[in-house]
Amino acid sequence: MAMRAEDIEHLLRETFPKARITITDLAGDGNHYAAEVIDESFRGMNRVQQQRAVYAALRGRMDGPTGELHALALTTKAPE
E strand or H helix at 55, and its extent? Predict the structure, then answer.
């Protein structure tokens, strides 16, 4: 099952309302995306912690073979 970029952004905005979020559909299939999330809440976190926070915000949409989202390349950071 595919997801729309808007749906991914909506889920992320619920957790990161002030973030700069850019979602790119990499393959045009609704299953392979890249996301850049820049948010102040990432300050002081290492990259793994930041990415775990993003995956948690997706609320299981990437879990297992039945997940709605197959692949998400993440770039996360605090604003400069």
Answer: helix 47-57
